Amino acid sequence: MPPKSKKPSLATLAIHGAREAHAHGDAVVEPLVQSVNHLQKPGTGEGLLYTRYGNTPNAARVQKRLALLEGAEASLLLSSGMAATACALLALLRPGDHLLASQYIYGGTHRLFIEEFVRMGIDVQLVDPWEPRVWRKNIRKETRAIFLETPVNPTCRVLDLRPISFLTRNSGIALVVDSTFASPINFRPLEHGADVVIHSATKYLNGHHDVLMGAVLGSEPYIEEVLQKEMLWGQTPDPFACWLLERGLKTLDVRVQRSNETAMQVALWAEKRKEVVQVHYPGLKSHPDHEIAKDILDGYGGMLALELKGGGKAADRFLKRLRLVTHAPSLGGVDTLVSEPRFTSHAKMTPAERAAIGIPDGFLRFSIGLESAEDLIADLEQALK
Length: 385
Ligand SMILES: *Cc1c(COP(=O)(O)O)cnc(C)c1O
Description:
GO molecular function, one term: carbon-sulfur lyase activity
Family: Belongs to the trans-sulfuration enzymes family.
Radius of gyration: 21 Å
Largest sheet: 7 strands, mixed
Bound molecules: pyridoxal-5'-phosphate
InterPro entries: Cys/Met-Metab_PyrdxlP-dep_enz (IPR000277), Cys_met_metab_PP (IPR054542), PyrdxlP-dep_Trfase (IPR015424), PyrdxlP-dep_Trfase_major (IPR015421), PyrdxlP-dep_Trfase_small (IPR015422)
CATH superfamily of the largest domain: Type I PLP-dependent aspartate aminotransferase-like (Major domain)
Helix content: 25-40%
Protein name: PLP-dependent aspartate aminotransferase family protein
GO cellular component, one term: cytoplasm
Number of domains: 2
């Protein structure tokens, strides 16, 4: 697929974006400034740097770089993806406001909405994003924001933001998109009419399973509001975490491109296996959203799911036999990981409820990492036998 973006290449921005000009003798790698406070000029309030204010050197540079990657005016780093979601929405919602959200969202986000936000007097309504005209039908005068994730965990369904943003633009509602699964390499929601983008930077942005962080991106005045929440709720990352994220970001483009390619190879291989009932991957013609994915994504992603014949028992047996693929939660890093929604994101549902939303027992979610496709397929093959 040709890239949809006309901006300077994302691969280059991920390394050089927002970098100060170098002088002879400077370190090639930007230094880690692991200091909470900084000297301040007497007689002025300007230049006040403090880690919790999100303005120290390591945070500031990565924030500018992420904004360039997503095509946003501004961005803010927070101490986790959950911190990003919480502060992003606390900056938008007041008691009495209505939040319209997709029901297919990250488990932690779901709990934040129905346990915390509801208690704060925010009216949360979860809807099925594939019900026809669902957004239009449910918007009220109190609706302040629409929240969704795409691609959707774990079935990799893809939502088209354009018709939704047409509605939100015309009614002054903020369209907030958790774009963790796509990363800016595969999809940039702001180009499709979203107002706010959220990332769990723990996943693709860092990509090495060693940093917990989140990011919010949007307009400058809005990010200033999110910053006020971050400062007061204390959700700011440490400089070292920002430095590690900067390091991880440099390889974002190659990592995501490689995961895209390998996931496609694994999906094509899995489609031919008689032990696999169904393969969920937007790059396959059999995927319900293949056409829309082809149209709006720059890459189909590194996430895919397989449904094994024989249900939970077959899944248990398969997982015990894997040697290379790691059975662990989370996603978006160099190691290929597999997890079972019935024990992780969808553990609170009954098997029948899960089956009804397309996640029967025997459903395995893979985050394809950077091992060779050949070695991965060999491992999957020996575990299936
Ligand atoms: C992991 C994840 C989160 C939460 O991020 P943390 O960094 O674990 O707090 C939110 N949304 C999605 C889609 C995720 O995968």
